[in-house]
Write a structure and sequence with these properties.
With 269 residues, this protein is α/β, with parallel strands linked by helices. The chain contains ten helices and 15 strands. A hairpin with a 4-residue loop joins strand 14 and strand 15. The radius of gyration is 19 Å and the shape is globular. This is Serine acetyltransferase.
Length: 269
């Protein structure tokens, strides 16, 4: 473990709370003791617990848990952004998802959180030139979680993907910080062009279930995309769009829609 990571583990409030929740959960449900001990309480730090959980999920007969664990440990030791983003993602889910009552839940149980953290490994591999291995990670995330994020896509921190079924994020997509999206969202292209062809999602955007954002367009910060919309043109900051094709139907409703998770709006005629 890198010295900086070791120091952080000594004063890490997120990890301290996860361990407290895990200890209480074992007392409440002894039958979960083995899973919770293996996933949380046997580890000295958040990084080690996360590496264990993601490696266990991604492992297959083609790639062992031990090999994946070593790769994850290397990634976490050399790129501090990965685990700082993992903490921010964890807190984002706890703050925004009414079904999340403990910080340990996403780490152990939520496929949206686990899929994003596995993508972060794949992105690190892509950026360090290990593209075939990054494609393996992408394949496993798609097979396991129904989430297909190209490892070259750039995704910020504080990300919440609720339910996370059928999420697609294309190769040149960019997602900013503190973005929330629901299931069946696609950030895709519009044809066969082999260049910058996917959406750019700014900070604080809320994307409703089933929305499709297509092409190299920018979705302005703190905007909202209504469920089921098909967005083909750029969206200004702090607007709400809805429809097929989507059009502006009002303001964003608040300063931080991705945090409030408010999907309601007064449509205009």
């Amino acid at each position: 473990m890198a010295p900086q990571t070791a120091a952080l583990s000594q004063v890490d409030p997120v990890w301290h709370r996860i361990r407290e929740e895990a200890e209480a959960a074992v007392l409440s449900e002894p039958l979960m003791g083995g899973l919770i001990h293996a996933g949380i309480l046997h580890h000295a730090s958040f990084e080690r617990a996360l590496a264990y959980r993601i490696s266990m999920k991604l492992a297959s007969r083609e790639m062992s848990e031990q090999i994946l664990r070593e790769i994850l440990d290397e990634a976490y030791a050399t790129d501090a952004f990965i685990t700082s983003a993992a903490r921010a993602d964890l807190v984002a889910i706890f703050d925004r998802d009414p079904a999340c009552h403990r910080l340990m839940q996403p780490l152990l149980f939520f496929k949206g959180y686990q899929a994003v953290q596995a993508y972060r490994l794949g992105h690190w591999l892509w950026m360090t030139g290990r593209k075939d291995l990054s494609y393996f990670v992408q394949m496993r995330v798609s097979e396991l979680f129904g989430v297909d994020i190209h490892p070259a896509a750039r995704i910020g921190k504080g990300i919440m993907i609720d339910h996370a079924h059928s999420i697609v994020v294309g190769e040149t997509a960019v997602v900013g910080d503190n973005v929330s999206m629901l299931h069946s969202v696609t950030l895709g292209g519009t044809g066969k062009e082999d260049d910058d062809r996917h959406p750019k999602i700014a900070d604080g955007v809320l994307i409703g279930a089933g929305a499709k954002v297509l092409g190299n367009i920018t979705i302005g910060h703190c905007s909202r995309i209504a469920a089921g919309s098909v967005v083909l043109e750029a969206v200004p900051p702090m607007k709400t769009v809805a429809g097929v094709p989507a059009r502006i139907v009002g303001e964003s409703g608040c300063s931080q829609p991705s945090l409030t998770m408010d999907h309601l709006f007064n449509a205009i005629s």
